[in-house]
Write a structure and sequence with these properties.
By secondary structure, this protein is an alpha/beta fold. The chain has one domain: Glutaredoxin (3-Layer(aba) Sandwich), CATH 3.40.30. About 35% of the residues lie in helices and about 30% in strands. It contains four helices and five strands; from the N terminus they run βαβαβαββα. It has a five-stranded mixed sheet with strand order 1-3-2-4-5. Strand 4 and strand 5 form a beta hairpin. The longest helix is centred in the middle third of the chain and has 16 residues.
Length: about 100
Amino acid sequence: MAQEINDGNFEELVTKSGKVVMIDFWAEWCGPCRMITPIVEELSKEFEGKAIIGKVNVDENPGITTKLKIRNIPTLLFYKDGVEVDKIVGASSKPAIASKLNSLL
């Protein structure tokens, strides 16, 4: 299951983890977000132990959302060594997302 990332644990799980991290910024009311949720959950199982796959509910975590200038959802951010290195805005396919993750490992 994808890990919940929030305003309180963002630093620890993303910028200080030293791992590859993918964050799905989403909201309950967002149709395209619901479309990629199963993909994100599958990837969280497939990349367990290799990368952190997390989700940020934009309605519940305005601090992170504002700080990272998330304007459209779904947005997937990719981090390596605590630094944002890639981004996908909008719904995407599982192979495209997995490819980005694999390229960072």
